[in-house]
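2024-03-11 09:14:02 DEBUG pipeline.ingest accepted 1 chain
2024-03-11 09:14:02 DEBUG pipeline.ingest length=231
2024-03-11 09:14:03 DEBUG pipeline.predict start
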Amino acid sequence: MTTDVLANLGPREQLRAGRLPRRLVQLLVGLWLYGTSMAMMIRSSLGLDPWDVFHSGLTEKTGLSFGAIVTIVGALVLLAWIPLRQMPGLGTVANVLVIGIATDVSLWLMPVPESMLVRVLLILGGIVLNGLAGALYIGAQLGTGPRDGLMTGIARRTRFSLRLVRTAIEVTVLAIGFALGGLVGVGTVLYALAIGPLVQKMLPWVVVRLTPPTVTVPVVTEPDIAPPNAT
């Protein structure tokens, strides 16, 4: 259990909490690297995380770019915040706008590998980079991603545990994505096992300490719950 903490702030408080230039840069770097890590996992063709399996399935069915689908789904999920009475932060909006663009640009720049060794390196590197990117984004303390807010909003309204709600959402999007032809593989399992410990390890390195002191909550609430995914 780490002693580092994240401030429990509303959208306006997030902007007034200090160190905003540093936090904005960290937010954008984290979101861009998140999109890059997604492109690495896509290029590996060895499996994606549950939400990206869903995104890739929609990409197969619609013909739209992966990044466009990420952006559209993020915007639709954000609309679902309205009945849940969730308030988006700057980071929430940036999440919707930046990650999809970063993914498409990275896919355009990244050639399709022919070697299995390169594919393995891409999936492993993509998962590690995803963990770092998620830690940077979360550590900027400018609001949750749309999918994380959906999870916390449903949990608050239904009084079900975060573990149950997160599992239900991710199993649902994974099943739908698989049915649509989304990319499921060993990388899906590796991501599920590794992303929680990676973000937990990296978050204390990059979390921005805010002033003045505010009510805080631990970075890790339960040892068996992975920290939230940035998309």
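2024-03-11 09:14:41 DEBUG pipeline.report The two ends are 24 Å apart (CA to CA).
2024-03-11 09:14:41 DEBUG pipeline.predict end
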